[in-house]
Amino acid sequence: MTKMRLLRLWIVLGSVFMILLIIVYWDNVGTAHFYLHTSFSRPHPPGALPTTGKDEEREFVSDVDEFLDKLLSSSGRQNDPLRKKTEQPPLPGSSKPILGNMEENVRGYDWSTHDAKQNPDQEKLQAERRNMLREFCANSSLVFPTKNRSFDDIPNYELNHLIVDDRHGIIYCYVPKVACTNWKRVMIVLSESLLDQGIPYKDPLDIPREHVHNTSTHLTFNKFWRRYGKFSRHLMKIKLKKYTKFLFVRDPFVRLISAFRSKFELENDEFYRRFAVPMLKLYSNHTSLPTSVSEAFSAGLKVSFSDFIQYLLDPRTEKLAPFNEHWRQVYRLCHPCQIDYDFVGKLETLDEDAAQLLQLLKVDKQLHFPPSYRNRTASSWEEDWFAKIPLAWRQQLYKLYEADFVLFGYPKPENLLKD
């Protein structure tokens, strides 16, 4: 029995060594660094490598999981989810940062935890937002699709909104129409994932918009399979456990108005061809339409807000393809019942939340959240925008986005849902 245990231990050690060699090789020939410091936060069943179902092989996988977790992290996070692992500047006169444990020796970064001074009211507000998420995710009275699935059940293509910064241990789930352009800029600066004449960008506002939304610029979870193969889901879980996870949200109906304004009231050829043309044909009875958005606008052919709402409520829409990310529900983009977020920001309190988050991440001295123009579509506009939308449609639309209202603490718009 002792010989069998020693043999299994050597197999585990040999397997882990080979995994590390393979990953280091992949990262050296690719654009990434050593992305092994990573996991989950909510107690779901641990991700397992494919097995034949035998007890001994399951024990072997468990050994590998445990060994990887211990090997790649010096210590787990403390009970306080806001204690962060952040990069420390090098000592004066030295070009190298202080090295402490294996992760720092491999990566060259200091991942020691730090206490962040916070405004007590903001700290309390964050606790309330996180607790609300957890409570409603556990509450059986709130029912919505995908609520009860595990992280392992989420298809890989649905993880494309989770951007990873391994340099600072951060995961950001971006939600379109919620200041995501500038948060993506911040993530680019922090991760140094984009260079300008060989030098990483230092100022978020220097980054051209076309590069910000280029998918090749960001390391996202859905890219892990290509890099790590069958170990990708396990590494995601390690990162979700160790890293700081945040997202920003806004009132669901206001977000819809903002999406409509930016994609259908402004000339956008892509959205005209993909969405406006079908909407105009289906809901406005147009049979012959111009091929370009500029021609359509010149002819007065624009999608109405009513057309847009009909499109969202039409059961044929989701049968053809999932909602576009600009109007897809946040719970489908960021999976808040499968991922235990450390920070929940809101567009309505963006300035305060952004300052607090950068301080918590210990990067507030390195950069500031860009003070650029923000779409100020206001909640007070809802009644005007929905005035011509039939009551039955408004009620159906609320049911479609109810989970986002409830999970993130937005009040039910009673004035829009009653005669």
Secondary structure layout:
Elements: H1 2-29, H2 55-72, E1 84-85, H3 102-107, E2 113-114, H4 120-138, E3 162-165, E4 170-173, H5 180-191, E5 195-196, E6 199-200, H6 209-212, H7 224-228, H8 232-242, E7 244-249, H9 252-264, H10 269-283, H11 293-298, H12 305-313, H13 315-320, H14 330-334, E8 343-346, H15 350-360, H16 382-386, H17 391-407, H18 414-417
Parallel strand pairs: 4-7, 7-8
Antiparallel strand pairs: 1-2, 3-4, 5-6
In short:
Helix content is 46%, strand content 6%. The protein contains 18 helices and eight strands. The termini are far apart.
Task: Describe the overall structure.
With 419 residues, the protein is of the alpha/beta class. It has helices spanning 2-29, 55-72, 102-107, 120-138, 180-191, 209-212, 224-228, 232-242, 252-264, 269-283, 293-298, 305-313, 315-320, 330-334, 350-360, 382-386, 391-407, 414-417; strands spanning 84-85, 113-114, 162-165, 170-173, 195-196, 199-200, 244-249, 343-346. It is built from 18 helices and eight strands. The strands form three sheets. Strands 3-4-7-8 form a four-stranded mixed β-sheet, sandwiched between helices. It has a two-stranded antiparallel ribbon with strand order 1-2. A hairpin with a 2-residue loop joins strand 5 (195-196) and strand 6. The N and C termini lie far apart (76 Å). The model is unreliable at 22-65 and 71-117 (pLDDT under 50). It comes from Monodelphis domestica (Gray short-tailed opossum). InterPro entries: Carb_sulfotrans_8-10, Sulfotransferase.
Helix content: 40-55%
Report the order of strands and helices.
HHEHEHEEHEEHHHEHHHHHHEHHHH
Number of domains: 2
Proportion in β-strands? 5-15%
Sketch the major β-sheet: 4 strands, mixed
Global morphology: globular
Number of strands: 8
State mean pLDDT (0 to 100 scale). 79
Distance between the termini: 76 Å
Per DSSP, the total helix count is 18
Task: Calculate Rg over CA atoms.
Answer: 24 Å
Low-confidence blocks of residues: 22-65, 71-117
Spatial order of the strands forming the largest sheet: 3-4-7-8
Structural class: alpha/beta
Transmembrane segments: 7-26
GO cellular component, one term: Golgi membrane
Membrane topology: Single-pass type II membrane protein
EC number: 2.8.2.-
